[in-house]
Amino acid sequence: MNKHPLAAHEAPPERDRWLQQFRTVRATTLALTDGLSAEDQCVQSMPDASPAKWHLAHTTWFFEAVVLARAGGMVPLYDPDFHYLFNSYYEALGPRHPRPQRGLLTRPGLDAVHAYRRHVDAAVERLIVDSDDVLWADVQPLVLLGLHHEQQHQELLVTDALHLLSCHPLLPTWKPASAGLRLAEPETPMGWIDRPGGIVSIGRALSGADGPHDFAFDNETPAHPVLLQPYAIADRLVSCGDFLQFIEDGGYRRPEFWLSDGWAAVRAGGWQAPAYWLAPDDPRNRAGRGWQVFGLQGVRPLDPAAPASQLSFYEAAAYAEWAGARLPTEHEWEAAFDAPGVRQMQGAGWQWTRSSYDPYPGFRPLPGVAAEYNGKFMVGQLVLRGGSVATPEGHTRPTSRNFFPPAARWQFTGLRLAKDATP
After folding, report:
1. Is the pTM of this model over 0.85?
2. pLDDT for 135-152, tens place per residue?
3. How many whole angstroms separate alpha carbon 419 and alpha carbon 328?
């Protein structure tokens, strides 16, 4: 095992922005683990989540196995075993440890994972600074993909660790109240913004990689025309206060609002409220009065103005049915992004749409190993738009497409209503 990191020289001006962005993204990931013990970072709370330590190692593996490997093996593998342990789903790169068993990886320890990160960081920095123009032109798109890949895992690290803490009987606080979360807007009645319909352009062209902020995932491409019928879209997200009315009206006991699979999920899971809500009579609600919500700052009183979150697609669709509305399609959502009066389009919560996660007309995956990044998951999932309190600033765009299966409810996922235009 090579334990001697490679130091990078001073970057030429045209590459300094890449070097600084790489350092910022990598440092941000480590900073997210503040407040988590080594034990917290090793445990896997369910098969769909991963330990924080695994996220730290996997994002490093991506830069080693995808970016540095493209540079012709300028740096030998840090440890061949890591190549097996921290591959996620890249079949072309060989076998991997089963996802549901990531929590059993007590070794390597957290300190060893940190050392792995430092080694690969130094090698990538050397690549950015010292590679000739031909090599840099070849690896630059992969460096860019690696940065955005890591930002995706930053959000997953937060949501996965929060799910882990939600399983603890004492529901511990992770982040202090001063952690800087984006706050709820003042509670206001929901309004409706009329949209004319017509032919609109959806999606965007692939990034030209002109800089570390010029980016689109392949699933956002290509730009293409879509015909929309006139519709109306809500000017804000459904709030906790709105959703509480649904609960108090028996929403989780009335099958007429639910899709068949959704009602089966309610019955099988015993759902009575969003995932992290605590009813007044819940034994974990130590306040002993009123609804409480568990989050990054521990258990706090339900804020009626805060966006409802930790909702599955089934719950979002049931609420929309109860409210006499529907979920927007992803095309309606994108077309309304810049409409005057529409609020909370980014940063307040991922928003379920009524669109299945399918390829756009003319979609082509990225070349090489990165072909496995998005296209292979385009079945059985629903599209979400926007971004949440856990999404890194600047990571999402109006064209960004997130996706999860309909029963997933551990992410910061909520909803915005839409309805057909009145004849």
Report:
1. yes
2. 999 999 999 999 999 999
3. 7
